[in-house]
Amino acid sequence: MASIISAGTTSGTSLNLSGDTSGVLQLASNGSTTALTISTAQVVTLANALPIASGGTGATSAGTALSNLGGLSGSSSQLVKAWVNFDGTLSSPITPRASFNVSSVTKNSTGDYTINFTTSFANTNYSICGTASANPTYFAQVLSPYPYSTQTTSAMRFRVFGSASTLSDVDLLSIAIFSS
């Protein structure tokens, strides 16, 4: 069973509601034809594929839709494997503002940080990109990873330099890591 919101097809029945305690929600059209279902795990399933000509992917689930976007998948090297946004002026351990696949951020010293991954990468051949906000003393900030020989599959260490080539703490650091 499910809780159902249905668009009626006769006068006076423009919206029909019925419910239960299953936690599943269905949206229906034409009185009873289910168009969309949202499961208790918040998985959305369409009853029919979205037409490609209308901007859809021809898929009825998000996983199928993603795979229809030119071969991308959750394990593709074309997708970010970890990202984090945090305040580098805080003391260690730093709680990220937001993140994906990051278990923690460690402040080793001024302008020197380690990002620890929740799920380790398959190898150390990853690429990082990121931004560091300007601070009042140095307007240009450079984000620099430690030498390749120090990279691990479970963590990535990097530094932030100001224009005087000195390590610098900044209040906004955003890092994305790509890996195969």
Please supply descriptive tags for the structure shown above:
180 residues; mainly beta; 2 domains; five-stranded mixed sheet; elongated
Molecular structure report:
With 180 residues, the chain is mostly beta strands. The chain has two domains: 3-67, no CATH class; 80-178. 3% of the residues lie in helices and 39% in strands. The protein is built from one helix and 13 strands. The chain has one helix spanning 62-67; strands spanning 3-7, 15-18, 25-29, 33-38, 44-46, 80-86, 98-100, 102-109, 112-117, 127-132, 142-145, 155-161, 173-178. A five-stranded mixed beta sheet has the order 2-1-3-4-5, with no helix packed on it. A four-stranded antiparallel beta sheet has the order 7-6-13-10, with no helix packed on it. The protein has a four-stranded antiparallel beta sheet with strand order 8-9-12-11, with no helix packed on it. The radius of gyration is 24 Å and the shape is elongated.
Short description:
3% of the residues lie in helices and 39% in strands. By secondary structure, the protein is mainly β. It folds into 2 domains: 3-67, no CATH class; 80-178.
